[in-house]
Amino acid sequence: MNTRHERISVLGLGAMGRALAGALIAAGHEVTVWNRTPGRAGALVAQGAREAASVAEAIGVSEVTIVCLLNDVSVREALGPVTGKLAGTTLVNLTSGSARQAREFAGWMREFGVRFLAGGIMAVPPTVGSEGAFILYSGPRDLFDRLAPVLAPLGRPQWAGEDHGLAALYDMAALSGMYGMSAGVDHAVALVHASGGDVEAFKREVLRPWMEQMLAPMVEGADVSESVPEEYNPAMQATGLETMLLTSDEAGVPAELAGHLRASLWRMRRAVAG
Ligand code: FVH
């Protein structure tokens, strides 16, 4: 995808905002940055960014403004005082939020005549702009089509639909999947560590090959039904999960780290009962 060069402002210079601004500068865009707390723009300015003294200034100088703050509340706090300057602007909000928050925010932007895309970043700061990175966008398709080449340096742009809540919904759902796996692998390592095992060897020789083997079938097999396929007998799985919890208790691993096992046990017991 060819990158078209534009004037782009980035509001928010946390770890993610800095990564986004850096990728846009590297792609040749004319980037203006703003952060609530001054003093975080130094490295970006050295790379060619311009630092705005206020949100209004940042929005005023660019064709597109990307917002990447902590949460929905912080975005409303930052934009609330400048709504009078928003008419006719184009805004992309990459701040994480819920689907309802995204829809309500889109309604708020509509009131002020803003062309608006909501987004969900499927990357972490070091992977922004890398091959596997992608960003979900929802909102008007024509706006997505216009901005996709401009935003491509951040990660592959992927349209989720006209409903502004969809990018947030898919983002939060995908993160839930990731945190579930993260909880599982952290617990696995805690278990081996607490029992005196060789954690690095376990990771390399057991955990990683096992996770790699199971990733695709796990995602394919994910569903919302209460039944479990015959080859994965739910009574057998419930017994296995009870044994994993027993092993965890025996090793003295905090019960809070095994919440994912209790979630699966709950599901298997329901399948057995149903
Ligand atoms: N970092 C990551 O791995 C994830 C990957 C997926 C997407 N998330 C989301 O990106 C948003 C920003 O995350 P971040 O990593 O940049 O977060 P921080 O480094 O904590 O920086 C937070 C920035 O937000 C500013 N801020 C906070 N409250 C306000 C406010 N009321 N008004 C204006 N700005 C505010 C903060 O400014 P300051 O504290 O430096 O003044 C930072 O710029 C986030 O939604 C992730 O879920 C990142």
Give a description of the structure.
The protein has 274 residues and is of the alpha/beta class. It contains 10 helices and 8 strands. The protein has an 8-stranded mixed β-sheet, sandwiched between helices. α7 (166-194) runs antiparallel to α8 (199-221) and α9 (234-251) runs antiparallel to α10. The mean pLDDT is 96. The site of ligand FVH has 22 residues, from α1 and α4.
What compounds are bound to the protein? Answer: ligand FVH
What's the tally of helices?
10
Helix content: 40-55%
> What spatial form do the alpha-carbon principal axes imply?
elongated
Q: What fraction of residues sit in β-strands?
A: 5-15%
Poorly predicted segments = none
Main sheet? 8 strands, mixed
Distance between the termini: 50 Å
Task: Give the structure's gist in a few sentences.
This protein has 274 residues and is α/β, with parallel strands linked by helices. 52% of the residues lie in helices and 14% in strands.
Essential attributes:
274 residues; single chain; binds ligand FVH
Tell me the layout of helices and strands:
Blueprint: E1 7-11, H1 15-26, E2 30-34, H2 42-47, E3 50-51, H3 55-61, E4 64-67, H4 72-79, E5 90-93, H5 99-111, E6 115-122, E7 134-138, H6 141-151, E8 156-161, H7 166-194, H8 199-221, H9 234-251, H10 259-273
Parallel strand pairs: 1-2, 1-4, 2-3, 4-5, 5-6, 7-8
Antiparallel strand pairs: 6-7
Helix pairs in contact: 7-8, 9-10
Bound molecules: ligand FVH.
